[in-house]
Amino acid sequence: MQRILQKLNRYFCSNLRLAVLDEMAGRWIIEPDSSNLPYLKAQNANGRHILIKPAEKVEPFYMLADDLSPHLLTRHHRYTDGRWKPGRMVVETSPGNFQVWIHSDRFLRLEEKR
Questions:
Q1: Is 31 exposed, middle or buried (0-12, 13-18, 19+ CB in 10 A)?
Q2: Phi first, then psi: what are they for 111, rounded to 5°?
Q3: Which of 8, 49, 82, 84 is at a distance of 20 to 30 A from 22, taking alpha carbons?
């Protein structure tokens, strides 16, 4: 998990937010620091979701594609030679289910993301 946090920090240029989501109790923000990893692992083991997203100041430059199957992942985010298209970070959130964060070099309006 330490490597994952390092990868996220690199991808989001150290501008990320972490939160714990409990469907009954709500959501609370956690500092994206390696010292919080045991806490995050424990929360996840207790059925809570760990949310990761870019910080508000850089969020307009990122778009999230969620709940992708392996077929959609290959069809939309890889070239035919198997290389990933630029600016993508792929996360397998559960077996066979993926998220793709896409980084843009320009501000993306909400309408464009939808």
A1: exposed
A2: -60, -40
A3: 8
